[in-house]
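so ive been stuck on this for like two days lol. basically i have the seq below and the ligand is adenosine-5'-triphosphate, smiles is in there too. i just want the complex predicted, nothing fancy, no docking runs or whatever. if the output looks off dont worry ill sanity check it later, just need somthing to start from for the group meeting slides
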Amino acid sequence: MSSTSPTAGTDSEPAVSVRDVTKSYGGRRAVDGVSLDVRRGEFFGLLGPNGAGKSTLVEIMEGLRQADSGEVAVFGESPWPRNTGLLPRMGVQTQSSAFFVRLTVHEHLRTVAALFGADRAAVDSTLEAVGLGDRHDVRVDSLSGGQRQRLAIASALVHGPELIFLDEPTAALDPAGRRDLWEVLRGLKARGRTIVYTTHHLDEAEALCDRVGILVSGRLVVTDEPQRLIGTFGSGSRLLVPLGRIDEERAAALPGVDSVSVQGGHLVLETRATGRVLAALDPLTGLDGVQTRTPSLEDVYLDITTRQTDAPLASNNQEQQA
Ligand SMILES: Nc1ncnc2c1ncn2[C@@H]1O[C@H](COP(=O)(O)OP(=O)(O)OP(=O)(O)O)[C@@H](O)[C@H]1O
């Protein structure tokens, strides 16, 4: 990766500002009145179910799609119509990144780097960083899905952009590859880069993001720091009881149980009175194998997205109030 420094001088201005943006495809509204600021140096995660509008919103920020209405500014400038002045400052990995498939990995990245005037050292270090250091001479059309994804990420990073957009960058990576990429992303953040990324991995968003925004049916229903979201919406704890010990109806009737669901091999009892529920469970099922879990971002996300709410939720959501 090259070592372009983030531009100084206008640090108080957000890296990306989105105001009341809408976008429809035919009669279907994919993005519905979204307002949002991504601060400089921030690691921002856009979360939401399939079809919620994440990619559409990110592509509007990138200048790859035109919004129907609303305003977008990247470093204070409109990314649409195509703003070539912004291109060297942005790195973009999409879900359908294009490759020069007949070139080798190294030739491909050299070609991308040349478009931005990045040098050969940047090509080598970026391939090393994304775990393709030993794949220089492999043709792109011979790469596995996960290796292509790494190359797409390398193509977004090779010119050392200040603002990096990554659309589900870890989707095709194996567990070790995901963890390696986390370190690459943490390193970029430590060097002051701004990162906007989408993911369905909630553990990852919780571990990496300064703030997350949750989109549901095109609307940004909440924006906040992961730990604050958990604090605001994740009250109580969850008791995981192995399936078969007690039926759902009986568990729901126990004193102190707020709700019951089945997840994996467990009956999950939500409660704000853990001791009381454990005391009630003990004579019925015994406590062997019963686990207690405090809420995670995933719990909060599932709770928020399954409410199918139309109204913004009350949290530290300045954007919605702006
Ligand atoms: N080019 C397009 N033409 C028509 N409809 C589209 C187009 N792109 C997206 N859509 C629709 O817009 C909605 C939002 O899609 P989008 O890809 O932005 O969601 P997403 O949150 O990124 O989903 P995923 O998590 O599955 O990637 C969906 O209903 C989708 O079918």
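Residues 2-9, 316-322 have pLDDT under 50 and may be disordered. DSSP finds eleven helices and 13 strands in the chain.
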